[in-house]
Amino acid sequence: MNVALFLKAALIGLSIAAPVGPVGLLCIQRTIAYGPRIGFASGLGAALADATYGAVGAFGLAAVTQYFVTLATPLAILGAVFLGWMGSTLLLAKPVADTGSATGSVMAGKAFISVFVLTLTNPMTILSFIAVFAAISGSAATAPSAAGIMVLGVFTGSACWWLLLACGVAVIRNRIGPRLMSAVNRIGGCILLLFAGWQLVRVIGG
Questions:
Q1: Fewer CB within 10 Å: N-end or C-end of the chain?
Q2: Distance between CA atoms of 111 and 41, rounded to whole angstroms?
Q3: How far apart are CA 63 and CA 130, in angstroms?
């Protein structure tokens, strides 16, 4: 395996995941509320979505890229509505106790799927991957083996960031009581609603 290419792609995945945004906020809030397992599951949803769009860019699937780009506006609106729903839900949420393993597995699955869908509502990410992959490989359409390495690298880098974030937040989790958790939910819900409003304004403004 081309280790250098893998590490470059992993760095790309890490750099895309690291900036604080709605997904990072959800990962932090869910880690505090439900534990690092749920927080990490949320992050893995984003990592898989990044890898999905990264695959489109790495394999040079121009037709698929164009299809997603044409859907940019409706997907952005859908993402804003989804963010608004999650923000409202979080705003009204009450602190909860740790769940059992069975319930926790269901919650992890829901956390994973919700963030995967949310991240997929930003199809312009494909164009970013195409540009970056072209810079590190010399061509937007690379050999299948190299493309596979880059996609794996993106997923690994992104997943590593979410694991570090979930574990880091988990360190202070036990120090947060119900009152502070309620405040975290309210603040997080408001921020998600602001993100949703900002995305709608951006879409309406062209």
A1: C
A2: 6
A3: 13
205 in a domain, yes or no?
Answer: no
Nearest to 121 by CA among 23, 13, 15: 23
Q: Could you count the other beta carbons within 10 Å of the beta carbon of residue 177?
A: 9
Cβ-proximal residues to 83 (8 Å cutoff; 6+ apart), any chain: 22, 118, 192, 193, 195, 196, 199
The answer to whether the predicted template modeling score (pTM) of the entire model surpasses 0.85 is: no
Tokens of 205: 């403004």
Amino acid at 130: I
Which is more confidently placed, 171 or 1? 171
pLDDT tens, residue by residue, 146-177: 888 888 998 999 999 999 999 999 998 888 88
Assigned token pair, 167: 């574990």
Token digits of residue 159: 């997943």
88 in Cβ contact with 193 (< 8 Å): yes
Asked if residue 21 belongs to a domain, the reply is yes
Looking at the structure of the chain, the number of domains it has is: 1
Q: Which of 40-49, 50-59, 64-73, 161-170 has the lowest mean pLDDT?
A: 64-73
Residue 112 and residue 97: Cα distance in Å, rounded? 20
